[in-house]
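Hello again, I could really use a second opinion on something today. I owe you a coffee for this, so here goes:
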Amino acid sequence: MNKLLLTLALLAGVISSNAADKNGFGEILSVKKIWDAGKHNAFTDLIRFKGKWYCTFREADDHVGGDGKLRVLESKDGETWTSAALLAEEGIDLRDPKLCITPDNWLMITAGGSVYRGTKTLQGRQPRVAFSRDGHIWTPTQRVLGEGDWLWRVTWHKGRAYGVSYDTTPLPAGAKDSAGRGEEWKLKFVESLDGVNYHLVTTLAVPDRPNETTLRFLKNGDCVALVRREGTKEHPDKHAWIGVAQAPYKEWSWKPAGVQIGGPNFIPLPDGRMVAAGRQYNPSPVGAKTFLGAMDLASVKPQLIFPSAGDNSYPGLVWEKKILWMSYYASHEGKTSIYLAKVKLN
């Protein structure tokens, strides 16, 4: 009888494991809520710095408006998290913080700086950056680029910071962009030697209101971009686009990713594969979900869906000791909270 029970238990374990990994991509090992103290906790990023974990996100009263603050959490083991810092700027909604490490080993935050003046209508914006040696003490947030810009994420490569800034300032009435379309937003590929002073490398010819963009660099030096698109009335297609360019990154080729993505993020793995994550938009009643999946230079394929609903996504990704760590936020438990997931990939 004991042998029979053991056999059944082992068989059940195999079936359960296969069910969790039915797509052959990987399996979710754990999902844990690590913060919910703010009224609205959202837009995460994650990094490993000087032997510790750091997770950052925005705390505010709501998804839009108010004076959003940037919370930075710290953990030695990825299990117990404590608040290391809270960055704020009076009258400014600091949004979408992103973490990176400078060549001289400073922890750097890039964020949007929006102005609402007590309304829900955007009155103005300009990107912000701040730096820290230990994750606790930060330089004051300082403005970069120009009014109307949003430098959504910075990635360092060979001593230079690269990023894509988008500008939603409306074109003059009747004006068209370089592709002959109206209702467009501008997308600029920029670089910097210090993370503060940026210059334009090229504009990116991505149509139909492109915006949030993550850049990563492959082992051969090529730069890959994953771009969110909102679509227009004339061209309602909202699928993200994938771009690739060789140094000096002025000539780009583009392909549709085949899926709409909010808060797009991706990382190359040591074996050359790429994995992407973000918000997947599904018809009701399923609605928006946070996903992870395989990515190549022509597509993104959502394969793992995480506990999430409603207001969610904006993941941070770190590959550590053959485990993919992912921060994200979601509202499926009643309020927007910050979660940390661990994933084993095949």
Residues 1-21, 178-182 have pLDDT under 50 and may be disordered. The longest helix spans residues 2-20.
